[in-house]
Amino acid sequence: MTASDRRRSAPEHPWRGIQLDVYERHMGDPGVGQLQRLREITGEQLAAYPFRAVGVLGVAGGNGLDLVDPETTDAVYGYDINPDYLHACETRYRDTLGDRLRLIEASVDRSVRIERVDLLVANLIVEYVGAEEFVAFAAANASSIGVLSCVVQRNDAAGFVSSTDHSSSFDALASVSSDIDPDALTSAMSGAGFTDLDRREYPLPNGKTLVRQDFRTTPGP
Ligand SMILES: C[S@@+](CC[C@H](N)C(=O)[O-])C[C@H]1O[C@@H](n2cnc3c(N)ncnc32)[C@H](O)[C@@H]1O
Q1: Do 99 and 74 form a contact (C-beta atoms < 8 A)?
Q2: Ligand 1 center from residue 219 Cα (angstroms)
Q3: Which of 5-19, 55-69, 157-171, 191-205 comes out lowest in average pLDDT?
Q4: Domains (ranges, CATH) in the chain?
Q5: Is residue 142 within 8 Å of 194, Cβ to Cβ?
Q6: Per-residue model confidence (pLDDT) at position 8
Q7: CB-CB neighbours of 165 under 10 Å
Q8: Which letter does DSSP use for residue 176 in this model?
Q9: CA 125–ligand 1 middle distance (angstroms)
Q10: Measuring from each residue's beta carbon to the nearest atom of ligand 1, which residues come in under 6 Å?
């Protein structure tokens, strides 16, 4: 079997089967409130650390990219596994960000090498990459990352996927998603040479909590 035969016969990644408008209506549902909260958190992440180059893993349709100041930014790298999401992101932000916007279709794992960024944002993607793989990705790219700021969701009493009219569209994600324990992530990141900089919690209307964790690569001796 050739590599392209293997690609053709490989099951499609479930995130490629979810329409962006379905995803955004689900996340923007007033009972979920995650799209708006994630946009605000992205704004905080952008304001917290100085940067000329920023990367966003799992950029989807570019939630929060309207908060990037083109005057002070040289490059905005957006990575996502779904090419349709990247196309929508391009349509939304090419006019304001111009050539600074660089969108890359990629399945994030330890084999991926990113462009050098001062700030790497990774909001609600660690759950789908897996903690171990995400930490291996961070370790492999440590020299290209100034600050890594990620958000994971703590489900507390709620289910992994919040309940809306669109919930069933996300059923297939169960095969690639896992709960992330923020303390375990901090400890694994520390083992990979990243120092814990900050941690903040954002309660959601549906009983879940978004947990933001910021890390910096430990300077050498
Ligand atoms: C829950 S959404 C995050 C949305 C966005 N970060 C925000 O703040 O609104 C997860 C995104 O990660 C992408 N994704 C999931 N697994 C991925 C992987 N292994 N590699 C790259 N992108 C992935 C999905 O296509 C989707 O756009």
Answers
A1: no
A2: 29
A3: 157-171
A4: 3-216 (3.40.50.150)
A5: yes
A6: 54
A7: 10
A8: T
A9: 5
A10: 15, 38, 58, 60, 63, 79-82, 85, 106-108, 123-125, 128-129
Determine the Cα–Cα distance for residues 211 and 148; give it in Å rounded to an integer: 14
CB 205 within 8 A of CB 33: yes
Q: What is the pLDDT of residue 161?
A: 65
CA 193–ligand 1 middle distance (angstroms): 24
Query: Has residue 192 got a pLDDT over 60?
Result: yes
CB atoms within 10 A of CB 149: 24
pLDDT tens by residue, 124-175: 999 999 999 999 999 999 999 999 999 999 987 656 566 666 777 788 898 8
Structure tokens at 155: 């489900």
Q: How far apart are CA 163 and CA 34, in angstroms?
A: 12
pTM for the predicted model, two decimal places: 0.93
| Extended strands (E) in 89-157 | 101-105, 117-123, 145-154
Q: What are the Cα distances from residue 27, in Å, to 51, 58, 87, 104, 152?
A: 28, 14, 19, 23, 15
Structure tokens at 83: 């090419």
Which pLDDT value is given to residue 156?
A: 75
Please calculate the CA angle 152-155-158 and round it to the nearest 5 degrees: 150
